[in-house]
Amino acid sequence: MNYNHSGARRGELLTGKPKRILDPSAGLSAPASSSPQSPYVYNQQVGSMPMNSGPPPEYGFNMPEQTPPSYGFSTAPMPGYNPNDTRTEGFTTPQFATQLLAEPMVTNMAVQYGNALVGSGKQQLEKYVPVTALKYYFAVDTDYVIAKLSLLFFPFTQRDWSVKYEQDGPLQPRYERNAPDLYIPTMAFLTYVVIAGLALGTQERFTPEQLGILASSALAWGIIELIVHTITLYVMNLDTSLRTLDLLAYCGYKYVGVNIAVFLSLIFQQLGYYVVLLYFSISLAFFLIRSLKLRVIPEGHSSYTASGNKRRLYFILFIASIQPLLMWWLSFHLIPSKAT
């Protein structure tokens, strides 16, 4: 009986049982032998393949080597990231602050708040320091300073000692040379400290601490003098137009004579010092008597009694007489002795 391969093929198709091909390369290889093949032929062929030390053959796909994907946080730096930058996104940048301040509404609010703060500060300062009154005493110019210094040294030729007034008060010193000021006493006090240091330096007695001691000592004596005059007015029950700053200005003019006397002592020794001190003491006393008389005993004031006028006169003489003593006390230790 002849075996028909085509018939068998038709029989397989009819029965629905296709033949299982285990080796996909069987159809491409040489015709198989007539001996039956084991179902494990493919595995045996693979197992019997010689080992090759080279790279394995590529079967259609070229898979490049790559690192396995990371399933956590990426360690690569992000673009624009700076590890040294510790700023957080919640804070404003300088550019944002600049843009915010450039807004008209914000600027107006800041200006209004600043004006209100300055106004409240001025009110608190006015309670303790009379800023407005101090402006009056420092309202001077060069002409006034020259005229006032000449009046201090040569008051004997002065005829009119009255102070002119406006509707709201006396004229400023720049318009009235008989008005008291604090500019000349302040500058004279600072000059006194400098000249005292110069005088001590020429005598090889200067130390940096001496300047502080001289300045604090002179300031303390000025405060004591002002307190004594104020208490005297209160105890004697004198009603005058003098203010505390007026007394401070009149008592501060003595530093002008002290400076001239100490400076001339560097040239003429003790003789120049005592001559200038004596002359300026007389001129300053005359100046204070004439200036304070119109402030303490006004002319034509009918309400003052004879006893009251005597007390006022004693007060004027007390101020005028104590100035030479204070001038000597503040400057005698700066004068070189005869031995030097």
UniProtKB/TrEMBL annotation:
Carries keyword Transport? yes
Q: Which residues cross the membrane?
A: 182-201, 213-235, 247-267, 273-292, 313-335
Its principal location?
endoplasmic reticulum
User: Which residue ranges have biased composition labelled Low complexity?
Assistant: 24-38
Q: What is this protein called?
A: Protein YIF1
| Bilayer topology annotation | Multi-pass membrane protein
Q: Which gene encodes it?
A: LOC107262805
Gene Ontology cellular-component annotations? COPII-coated ER to Golgi transport vesicle; endoplasmic reticulum membrane; endoplasmic reticulum-Golgi intermediate compartment; Golgi membrane
